[in-house]
Amino acid sequence: MSEAADVPGVSDGSDPSDVLALDSLLTANELAVRERIRDFTEQRIKPGIARWYEDAVFPLEVVPELGELGVLGMHLEGYGCPGRSAVEYGLAAMELEAGDSGIRTFVSVQGSLAMTAIHKWGSEEQRQEWLPRMAAGELIGCFALTEPTAGSDPSSISTFARRDGPGDDAGWVLDGAKRWIGFASVAGVMVVWARTDDGVRGFLVPAGTPGVRATPIAQKLSMRASIQCDVVFDAVRLGPEALLPGARGLRGPFTCLNEARYGIAWGAMGAARDSYQAALNYSQDRLQFGKPLAGYQLTQEKLVNMLLEIQKGTMLAIHLGRLKGARKLQPEQISLGKLNNVREAIAIAREARSILGGNGITLDYSPLRHAANLESVRTYEGTDEVHTLVLGKHITGIGAFR
Fold first, then answer.
1. From 30, 375, 381, 385, active-site residue
2. Catalytic annotation present for 241
3. Nearest to 228 by CA among 86, 56, 68
4. pLDDT in tens, 120-151
5. CATH for 141-249, among 3.20.10.10, 3.40.50.10860, 3.60.160.10, 2.40.110.10?
6. How many other C-beta atoms can be found within 10 angstroms of the C-beta atom of residue 222?
7. At the top level of CATH, which class does the domain 3-135 belong to?
8. Is pLDDT above 50 for 8?
């Protein structure tokens, strides 16, 4: 081992793409988690992803495997959840999204959204009933907040739950519609956010409840190896036990959304890294005008510019993870990470495709698939514009949303 390898922050040269020696910022446990999930992605996701993407199929068979891998509700404690650190969860998101955004999105919807809502806002009975099966991948959850006319402005949701009789012991009647709800058609339980006479509240709606209809959205150009649905609630009757007792107002769903946004800041760098690696490998093997593409100045400039943003974005993600682990992470910091890393990841995927030339438009190579997926990632959990305004309010003190 070289002397450089013994000095924190100095690369030993074993990975030329880790110029900043970012691995030295990770613990042995964190590196072990990363390698385990990277191996899973290489063995179980990458061999099938082109077919799943082309056929617009989400591989339900990997769900229990993800449970066994320990990435469902990875950051949560108890109830069969792994209870791993913020950085470990981030690394998992990065490695899974290097496979495909659709796989990382499932883990996010399951753990950061649906399971977090139950874990943080549910009753003890609700936690015991749902979380162990969700952590094991035996049951899928979804998170129904977005509506056809309420995307970036969840305060305008119109889905309504009214009391089904007098008194607090009465049940509820739910009416409304949701859109772009991940995995709703295969979910065993829906976390549904609705307006009530007492403000926005959360409800657990089990699969098979009469009056619920979830229809997968077809003809997507992005996130094809995933499921997003339109959901209709038509006079859906729920018992009093369906209410999440701890969630009142938009703070309930926003807490879950921030968990998901944090994972996206990591995941986007996984898609970026995989795109960069595909372009680097191709440029070293592809001969043009008598030498490898990697030997030309224009190609090297593209590769260097991609690597700059991957290294910076990964360092940002690690920093956010350390803040989160110390319980110091703020919403505006999450917005900065999501806005920057997704935006840069899209640019990297597109640039990587340019190095691949015409071959880059096929599913034999990952960059254009990643670029298409990232258009969805850029949109959900807060658009670029929303996160820009969050940061704008933070630095000026003036809200510009309306």
1. 381
2. no
3. 56
4. 999 999 999 999 999 999 999 999 999 999 98
5. 2.40.110.10
6. 18
7. mainly alpha
8. no
